[in-house]
Amino acid sequence: MNRGAWWATVHRVTKNRMQLILSLSAWLRKQTIFNYDPYIKWPSILGRRTHSLKPWMIALIITAVVLVLAVIIGLPVYFLVFDQKVHYYQTSFQIPSIEYNLDFSVEHSKNRTDLKQKISSEIDEIFQRSSLNRHYIKSHVFNVRPSNNGLKINVLLKFQFTSNNADTIKREADSILHQKLKLNESFLKIDTSLPYLKAMNNVQAEHILNSCCGLGREFPSMERIAYGNVAKKADWPWQASLQVDGIHFCGATLISEVWLLTAAHCFDSYKNPKRWTASFGTTLSPALMRQEVQSVVIHEDYASHKHDDDIALVKLSAPVIFSDEVHRVCLPDATFEALPESKVFVTGWGALKANGPFPNTLREVEVEIISNDICNQIHVYGGAVSSGMICAGFLKGKLDACEGDSGGPLVIPRDGNIWYLIGIVSWGMDCGKENKPGVYTKVTRYRDWIKSKTDI
């Protein structure tokens, strides 16, 4: 800018400011609080009464100005920092350097777990060393399958950013992956048969993230107390309440999107599926989710006058959308045996004492596996515990399942906090009585029956 233009700008700004001052003066002359004329020289008279602002009014004005400035400054900061939302993208890769192994299809197998960890670590490194490292959260590997050239895998990418940056972030993530993989520095290769990055809504993404079985609470993290603990949200996401006409009647366990496993004796009195609903979440009211029941499959050899074959399947009318709070438990192989004194958990909305009311919030209790030999001793159950049953609890009593827990899960942690269903609450004498531990249907004994009905 030359000198003449600079002086012209200064003159214009000065003139504008003078006009602003004169306008403000004219406004002040109209205000009775000041009655001020800038062209009259007021004599300095001590004791003249003035209408100056009081200290509390000044403080109030300053506070108001500070608040306005805070809002003006704070809103952009909020939208830049706190208005960030989670966004998911699905992509697919080829892995020509690794041959498909049947073990890759076995959930939580070591080979599958190691493969998923290797892929996730590779993707994590790519984005953590990129310009998107502040937005990238994690990757999730799913759908490992064979291809004509080694393996093909699907991966879910999780980012966090403000919504108005969605297109920019997607293009940048796409570019980062393309550039990295084209350099042949990674064992991952681009799958050209699919769109590279496909946006996925949060519900679909959460369903995929929680599709792995047995993801629940960490073990151990609870002190033993009488009557158990109130369960925390998402600790036991496979737990369901089976309800008759909207009232809790039995527990059940989610083993797939549409199948629940429970006790056959729950249906001794109410056999019509239309009267039954399944409720999910840690509280009975309000429930996190409710599903209608389509059908009930009771074991063919079950009879109400005996305890054997106390197992049933419940098919839901619509698939459950998995989330952090609702997803399935793992089923063990038929050969699995829980050793005596193993720590296991039973959960449910059963009464806290015999003939007591049902609590509204799910409860949990840690118990121990007791050998069938001990349970069949004369002073315990005198031979009533068959090979298709499991004993769990304590011979000293106190901690036990109770009325209303029937059909609910007995679970054990394996493979690093992956939970497996090993028992179904079946029968016992009273609740927490000495020498009368809980008796559970042994799930591994009926593993083939479950598969024949559900293909799980």
From TrEMBL:
<keyword id="KW-1133">Transmembrane helix</keyword>
<dbReference type="GO" id="GO:0006508">
    <property type="term" value="P:proteolysis"/>
</dbReference>
<dbReference type="InterPro" id="IPR018114">
    <property type="entry name" value="TRYPSIN_HIS"/>
</dbReference>
<dbReference type="InterPro" id="IPR036364">
    <property type="entry name" value="SEA_dom_sf"/>
</dbReference>
<dbReference type="Pfam" id="PF01390">
    <property type="entry name" value="SEA"/>
</dbReference>
<protein>
    <recommendedName>
        <fullName>Transmembrane protease serine</fullName>
    </recommendedName>
</protein>
<dbReference type="GO" id="GO:0005576">
    <property type="term" value="C:extracellular region"/>
</dbReference>
<feature type="active site" description="Charge relay system">
    <location>
        <position position="310"/>
    </location>
</feature>
<dbReference type="InterPro" id="IPR001314">
    <property type="entry name" value="Peptidase_S1A"/>
</dbReference>
<keyword id="KW-0378">Hydrolase</keyword>
<dbReference type="Pfam" id="PF00089">
    <property type="entry name" value="Trypsin"/>
</dbReference>
<dbReference type="InterPro" id="IPR009003">
    <property type="entry name" value="Peptidase_S1_PA"/>
</dbReference>
<feature type="active site" description="Charge relay system">
    <location>
        <position position="406"/>
    </location>
</feature>
<dbReference type="InterPro" id="IPR017329">
    <property type="entry name" value="Pept_S1A_HAT/DESC1"/>
</dbReference>
<keyword id="KW-0645">Protease</keyword>
<dbReference type="InterPro" id="IPR033116">
    <property type="entry name" value="TRYPSIN_SER"/>
</dbReference>
<dbReference type="GO" id="GO:0005886">
    <property type="term" value="C:plasma membrane"/>
</dbReference>
<dbReference type="InterPro" id="IPR001254">
    <property type="entry name" value="Trypsin_dom"/>
</dbReference>
<feature type="domain" description="SEA">
    <location>
        <begin position="85"/>
        <end position="204"/>
    </location>
</feature>
<dbReference type="InterPro" id="IPR000082">
    <property type="entry name" value="SEA_dom"/>
</dbReference>
<feature type="active site" description="Charge relay system">
    <location>
        <position position="265"/>
    </location>
</feature>
<keyword id="KW-0720">Serine protease</keyword>
<feature type="domain" description="Peptidase S1">
    <location>
        <begin position="225"/>
        <end position="455"/>
    </location>
</feature>
<feature type="transmembrane region" description="Helical">
    <location>
        <begin position="56"/>
        <end position="81"/>
    </location>
</feature>
<dbReference type="GO" id="GO:0004252">
    <property type="term" value="F:serine-type endopeptidase activity"/>
</dbReference>
<keyword id="KW-0472">Membrane</keyword>
<dbReference type="InterPro" id="IPR043504">
    <property type="entry name" value="Peptidase_S1_PA_chymotrypsin"/>
</dbReference>
<keyword id="KW-0735">Signal-anchor</keyword>
<keyword id="KW-0812">Transmembrane</keyword>
<keyword id="KW-0325">Glycoprotein</keyword>
<keyword id="KW-1015">Disulfide bond</keyword>
